[in-house]
Amino acid sequence: MRDEPQARGLSLASAVLAAVLANVALAAGAGAGVTPVVEPGAGGPESLAPTLATRDTAGLVAFVDAAGSLAVVDPDTLEVTVFGSGGSRAFFPAWSHDGTRVAAVVAGPGSTWVEVVDVARGELAAVVSASDREPVYLSWSPDDGHLAVLAGTPAQDLALDIVDLAKALGGDPAARTTLEHGQPFYWAWSPTGRSVLVHRDVLGGSALVGLSPIDAFEVARPLPSPGAFQAPAISGSGRYVAYARRDLAEGRVVVVDNPELSEAGAPLVEVVHDGLVAFAWRPGHEHLSVQGVADTRGFQGPVVLLEVPGGDAHVLSSDEVVASFWSPDGRWLATLSLADDEEGGRRVHAGAALLRVQARLPVLALRFVEVESGRVVDAGPFQLSRAFLSQYLPFFDQYSRSHSLWSPDSTALVLPVVGRGRGPMLTVVGVDGTSRELVRGDMPAWNLR
Fold first, then answer.
1. 430 CB contacts (<8 Å, ≥6 apart)?
2. What pTM value is reported for the model?
3. For site-directed labelling of 236, which of 193, 331, 416, 440 has its Cα 20 to 30 A away?
């Protein structure tokens, strides 16, 4: 189905698209297919709508509105700006690190492309498209100079393309580099923005984990024996790399020195795990959260915190966690876990629950864990949108690095909550357990600036 490109593109189980990107067409200019429309919030007069040319974008939430258009909302005033002229549908918008632009995959009749919108100016900045490509996911480089775009073609595997935005806006045909192919394909940007830590062909005979420059694919120091995990992770300081490897029948999450900086020696920290595992670095610390250590069915399970390089570990959550997200300040870990089944009071296996999303949305419990004190805030059960459950949640370890659900001040999370008899509503849930509704919409991402 065209309305679920991310799920098809990143899935471990499906054979997705890839090959060579022939030509990248980039068009720049104000309003080229994008019409900014400012809608005042329910509580404010139209005169409060901001002037787009000088708009302050700090703290805005990007999302997809009920009509499928890319939009942003001010959580305080509820003013909504819609970008789009109809006839297409956007997916999972991602903010640039400087907080001025949003990039999103957009699908229209017979084609899919990437749009970059300058939210501060209220105009379309660039369109990235090609007749033989179907983008499925994207992320900004740390310096906002490049977009890494995962795309597919009828060749049935995935390609990772690097788009130089400055060259693209200047019409340079060398703006796009096809870095490498694989199926599936995950990555993390190096803090330098000049390389990516890739994980290609998960659990396949050609599985590869290692750092490559973005101008040409070359993994000079591949990490040994890639195992059962999806997205690799580089610590905020850039000193360490986390991945999972297989040693005979045993899986291990390991932390090694960043091979971009030095020769990776013996693992500094390691922990045994079963099944698929997911992990993320705690902002501002050399601590790694590891989810699913003791689960054989997927990365559902308790979350453990590992200290690097000492190796001390303790349990952050003993719930059946299906996704977890660090706050920008590293104080909180938000967890989504399986709530009791309404019919029998039993916990439902995560994989089975997610496979049933077309028929019945599972209920997930949101909790906030304050790391230093161990305090847990139970924010209550929520039914989340089908797109979030089927596309974001199975790949949360990748999406959470490019699409923040957290507010920039680390006090709240934004989620697409489904109520009775209506579409999803963007809902802000505070670390104090309170919640409030914003506007109807889906696929939110909070601007961290």
1. 379, 411, 412
2. 0.85
3. 416
